Structure to design on (584 residues):
DNA sequence: CGCTGCGCACTTT
DNA sequence: AAAGTGCGCAGCG
């Protein structure tokens, strides 16, 4: 079949319009051709007609108007050969293979969590697939099929050549990931939350993502085909969450098109202007408001005016600008601000974090299980302001903390020895600060907001919920990944922990290593990056105290190597090689 | 103002 | 019931 002039451009235009959910009508197609390829209107018209005649493009009527379809996509699922037999569209991925691929990626990601971020190396992927089915597939055939998956968009080839599961649905050629979900809990037996990786549901410990509000439902951690976390999205624009909170939760007429909750600022302001003044109405967002400091009624004292010239309004870091509610069917956005002076009082739930951020009582989450106070009473540490459910803290908290009395979490009760080690490493002034038991009343007074480069609250990596002075072992315990880890005494040491029986003798004991020995160990895997261990004078004892955040940020390494190095650090720390231990 | 993304109601398979 | 479609709106440059 000879190719019609501009055929590719026309098909591309149709595909793009479909992707945008815009009707691929003649006007839009012509417009696209003119804009992108400077094709003359009449030429475009002729070319489109030719394409229709030729059958490359289908002219259809849909909902009363004319649309054009990419014939290859429209009937790709039932293309027939000359005998009338249905033949497989070679451009469409093989469903069996897709399932195999999905399982392979899931398994590899489970074994090597870094693959979530780095992608799965092609060789690994092929090896895994062949190990499952070397009858139907050869190495070469697998790589061809991988290419097809990439073409179809269900697989993404990263710059480094590794693969990631792509958005499951990119157009009409949708891929039914949903039917091929694999529960990795079946593989791990873990008691964890569920994530969909591509279409693969992966059980994973939840962790609040930076800039990503943790909702109470597990779904908020779902990376589904539409990529709620936006991680793999190519385009830059992100849509605001449709509706976060609707106290009235009724009388909202279903409306076609945009939900009421996503009206823009000017629309809201216009609509609000129609309402009579009402004290219950929050201030409309002025142009110069900031994310965390803004006007509004203090959610603690319920007064709108400031209490003094230096008093400012602090908004909850979780729900700031994100909570929608309705007044007479109009969406309003509202945060739960509070006067600076109203925080850090007797009620620990109103305590600010050392980095000057604040979680309102509604959003405050247990640093172990990430559930809010809905799941039980939260005890809040007087120093680091981290919250724990009574059963989540180790040791368990017996009685609720009395109003006005102070309670320190296990990490803020750490011995001085650890503090000295951390300070020597120079990793974190937060670490050092939080050892200051003497001034538990004003943790914020010595802290300069977010200026520290090491800010464990705003780390781009899944933030470690563990407060600063945690030892590696306690750190792991904090992630709740291994019940075997438990703090038995006030002064935990490696010998106190239930580790011995699980030690892998092939993993060396680094506790007495010198700087050089540390360097040599890492140099065999990361000749370039290992130098940093020398520069930072990290010896064995220091290495055993390192936390994920230290490896990822303080060593100033690129993320990829840093993640790999972190895995080795954890291995050396626990002398085991269990993916669960460094899983996010 | 035009292009783009996308929720959701509607239509087709 | 599931998949396909595109209206109508918001965000953005």
């Amino acid at each position: 079949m000879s190719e019609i002039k501009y055929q590719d451009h026309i098909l591309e235009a149709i595909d793009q319009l479909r992707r945008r959910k815009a009707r691929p009508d003649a006007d839009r197609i012509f417009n696209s051709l003119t804009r992108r390829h400077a094709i003359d209107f009449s030429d475009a018209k002729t070319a489109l007609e030719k394409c229709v005649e030729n059958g490359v493009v289908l002219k259809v009527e849909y909902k009363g108007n004319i649309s054009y379809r990419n014939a290859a996509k429209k009937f790709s699922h039932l293309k027939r050969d000359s005998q009338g037999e249905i033949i497989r569209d070679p451009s469409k991925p093989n469903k069996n293979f897709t399932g195999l691929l999905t399982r392979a990626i899931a398994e590899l990601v489970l074994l090597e969590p870094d693959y979530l971020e780095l992608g799965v190396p092609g060789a690994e992927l092929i090896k895994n697939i062949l190990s499952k089915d070397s009858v139907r597939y050869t190495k070469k055939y697998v790589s061809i099929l991988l290419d097809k998956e990439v073409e179809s968009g269900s697989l993404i080839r990263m710059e480094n050549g590794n693969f990631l599961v792509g958005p499951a649905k990119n157009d009409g050629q949708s891929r039914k990931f949903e039917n091929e979900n694999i529960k990795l809990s079946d593989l791990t037996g873990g008691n964890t939350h569920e994530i969909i990786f591509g279409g693969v549901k992966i059980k994973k410990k939840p962790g609040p993502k930076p800039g990503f509000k943790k909702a109470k439902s597990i779904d908020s951690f779902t990376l589904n085909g539409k990529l709620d976390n936006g991680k793999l999205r190519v385009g830059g624009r992100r849509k605001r969450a449709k509706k976060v909170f609707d106290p009235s939760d009724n009388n909202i007429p279903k409306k076609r098109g945009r939900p009421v909750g996503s009206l823009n600022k000017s629309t809201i302001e216009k609509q609000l202007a129609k309402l009579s003044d009402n004290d219950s109405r929050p201030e409309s967002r002025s142009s110069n408001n900031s994310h965390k400091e803004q006007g509004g009624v203090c959610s603690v004292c319920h007064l709108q005016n400031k209490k003094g010239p230096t008093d400012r309004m602090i908004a909850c870091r979780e729900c700031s600008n994100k909570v929608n509610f309705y007044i007479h069917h109009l969406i309003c956005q509202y945060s739960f601000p509070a006067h600076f002076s109203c925080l850090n009082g007797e009620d620990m739930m109103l305590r600010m974090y050392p980095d000057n951020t604040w979680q309102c009582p509604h959003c405050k989450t247990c640093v172990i299980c990430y559930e809010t106070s809905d799941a039980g009473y939260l005890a809040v540490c007087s120093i680091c302001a981290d919250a724990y459910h009574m059963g989540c803290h180790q040791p368990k908290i017996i009685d609720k903390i009395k109003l006005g009395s102070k309670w320190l979490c296990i990490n803020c009760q750490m011995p001085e020895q650890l503090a000295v080690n951390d300070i020597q490493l120079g990793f974190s002034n937060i670490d050092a600060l939080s050892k200051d038991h003497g001034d538990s009343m004003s943790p914020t007074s010595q802290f300069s907001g977010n200026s520290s480069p090491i800010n464990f609250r705003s780390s781009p990596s899944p933030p470690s919920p563990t407060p600063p002075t945690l030892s590696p072992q306690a750190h792991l315990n904090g992630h709740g990944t291994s019940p075997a880890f438990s703090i038995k005494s006030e002064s935990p040491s490696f010998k106190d922990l239930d580790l011995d029986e699980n030690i892998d003798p092939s993993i060396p004991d680094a506790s007495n290593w010198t700087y050089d020995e540390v360097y040599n160990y890492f140099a065999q895997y990361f000749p370039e990056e290992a130098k940093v261990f020398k520069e930072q004078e990290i010896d064995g004892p220091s290495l055993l105290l390192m936390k994920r955040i230290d490896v990822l940020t303080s060593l100033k390494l690129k993320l990829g190597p840093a993640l790999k190095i972190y895995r080795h650090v954890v291995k050396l720390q626990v002398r085991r090689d269990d993916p669960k231990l460094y899983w996010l």
In short: Chain A is about 30% helix and 10% strand. The mean pLDDT of chain A is 59. Chain A has five domains: 7-74, 88-234, 260-338, 348-439, 472-582. The first strand of chain A starts at residue 57 and ends at 62.
